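Pilot study result, target chain (464 residues):
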Amino acid sequence: MSAPEVVDQERAGRFQSAATPASEPASATPAAEPVTAGPLEIEGDPVVALVPAAPGAGLIYATGGEGFYRSGSGGQSWELVGEVPPPGIIVAASDDAPLLLAGDRPPCGRGGPGLPLTRSEDGGASWSAVDGIDSLRPLAIWGEAGVAIGATCAGLQLSLDGGLTWRPFEILEPGFDVTAFAVVPDETNPERRQALIANTSEGGTSRLRLLDLTDPEQPLVGDVLREFWGLGALAGQGEIYLLGAADGVWISIDAGLEWTQRRNGLEEVTLSADPLTGPLSKEELARGFGIFTVDMLVDQLNHLYAGTIGGLYQSIDAGATWERVEEVEGAVSVMVIAENTARVFVQTEAGVVVVPIEAKAAVEAEAAATPSPVVDAVTVRILDFSFEPATISVPVGTTVTWVNEGQTIHTASALVGVERIWDSEIMETGDIFSFTMTEAGLFDYLCLIHREMKGTVEVVEGST
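Predicted structure:
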């Protein structure tokens, strides 16, 4: 096929004409323009499917009825890059490399033909079959490193050459199948390649683990982080994990050590209990339920989305409460967040819909307009979304106290690698956390939920 054709988007001025080549980073995109919720069409071609993207990914891929499209501008403009791609599940590189894989396996335990694995090195402009590989479902690609992972009915498969050759590296428990997967980027260590993975038995019991491919020659599969019923949906950013389960959204801010259930507002699309732990009526089981995809904003980790059997839901308070996004009808199976252009793209049975990301809650503006009173040097106010004061200097032995005066949950956490110097864990409005500084040094800390919130404590010998 000839070079990609630039396509102008004429849907009520929602998109600019394409001006950003696919090779340009997302940061080079133009300023976001207002978006009106509605079906996504590109040059009159209704978009029917999305390619899942890792959190913060700069490229978005979409399949229309007449071609395969790519956006390097958060969905403001699109390029036609090729014909409709081969059948199967399509996975794009999580690091914006132009590598894609497409394929799938048959239903495990029931048999049937699988699909051949196909590969594109030019962002979907052309595809070629991988010799001798079929019945493999691609799960993730780290394109620059050439690392890819997939699943067959026999277990996980690993590729170190961008999907050209594969080898098994982890045999799952007998009767368990890979049913959910999510790349977990870590802005503190971009070289780390990690993913959440869920395996499900024929009886519906699922086990969640962390997969580490930082050293692809020695891949590691961690211990079970959580056991739940059903297929589940996963997302992660740093140490914050989301699990969409039958009984709500479960959230961990400490890499899966502890979990908090959030269901307020999701009652119509979830069960009142996990079938593994509590009895349920036949009526409740028969009415339909399910969370099929979850995600969060990279720069505002309290802003969550859940694609469910009954539409799209969002939370702006870290999952404490959820509201349905009225513009999205029907079950949502795939979701891509373009945070730089304030858009969420969701795939439903009727096609792809784009909706605007709502602004932060009004309490942020209210907090910003409220003058900060003079506070004691060892007391730090937590606002939405800043620490006040952001930098303090105290002598060794001082106890520093953080008070959450914001209207949403926060943390005050100092991390050095995997070591936690101090960690408040989740603080609700009005909560207080104190820590005594026993060593001299310069300690940077942040809110694990809103990572743009940062502060510094300078601890010095003697008095200040």
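One observation from the pilot: Confidence is low (pLDDT under 50) at residues 1-31, 360-376. A full batch analysis is planned for the follow-on phase.
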